[in-house]
Write a structure and sequence with these properties.
It is built from ten helices and seven strands. By secondary structure, it is of the alpha/beta class. A five-stranded mixed β-sheet has the order 1-7-4-2-3, sandwiched between helices. Helix 1 crosses helix 3.
Length: 241
């Protein structure tokens, strides 16, 4: 396996962009990642595109990645669509990394893009239910409930076994909110305290509102290359050896 470097990243702000199509959300993420890496569309050997809910919420099936990248001016290369719930983008990055590591590609693009605000919150919740375990979602339980009480996770049991407290579960939210407060692309830009997280209202015991992820639109992309190749100008057709 070859060493791989991520030399360019890009993102679209996360938040509510009801009137904006997914391809317009993906566009700046793609081009920021390419410009940051100093590569152009002709340099890309393969692209992996992660999206989980596009088929359910926009009706676009089968060629979601092809549509998104074509809008960004990227065509004529293998495009692999990845659908893996919350891990769709991470799985796309894994695929791009493996392409370069295996020697099948010298430059690979990974894109994760999602649009959950479609002007109908009931549709968004229904889509989330569809990518939860169906037996549980049919009982009104989604990801959050599953995480809290699923026999293989069961946070209440873990609290008893390890002595964890609800304040312990609040700490990641506090850390993430502090980072978000400094990030101009973050959906929520307000630092929270442990007390605010704990008191934000129970979603499913022991998880509270601020411990749970938000519905969001957004996109992020990364350019993966052989780490032995050096960074070059965006005008160059390929990296120097």
């Amino acid at each position: 396996m070859r060493d791989v470097a991520i030399i360019g990243v890009g993102a679209h702000a996360t938040g509510q962009f009801t009137e904006k199509p997914l391809k317009d959300i993906a566009y700046p993420a793609v081009w920021n990642a390419l410009n940051d890496a100093g590569v152009g569309p002709a340099d890309i050997d393969v692209a992996y595109v992660g999206n989980s809910l596009g088929g359910l919420l926009t009706g676009q099936e089968g060629i979601r990645g092809q549509v998104l990248l074509q809008h960004s001016g990227i065509t004529g290369l293998p495009i692999i669509n990845v659908e893996n719930a919350c891990a769709s983008a991470a799985t796309a990055l894994r695929g791009a990394w493996l392409e370069v590591a295996s020697g099948a590609a010298d430059v690979a693009l990974a894109l994760g893009a999602e649009k959950m605000f479609v002007g109908d919150s009931a549709r968004s919740i229904s889509a989330l239910s569809a990518v939860s375990e169906l037996d549980l979602s049919q009982m009104g339980m989604q990801f959050t409930s599953s995480y809290a009480i699923h026999p293989k996770i069961n946070l209440k049991a873990k609290m008893q076994e390890y002595g964890w407290t609800i304040e312990d579960f609040a700490k990641p939210a506090v850390k993430n909110s502090a980072n978000g407060a400094l990030n101009p692309l973050a959906q929520h830009r307000r630092a929270l305290t442990i007390e605010q997280v704990v008191q934000s209202g129970v979603v499913v015991d022991p998880l509270t509102l601020y411990m749970c992820s938000s519905i969001s639109d957004g996109a992020a992309a990364a350019s993966c290359v052989r780490s032995t190749r050096r960074r070059s100008s965006p005008t160059n057709s390929r990296f120097g050896s």
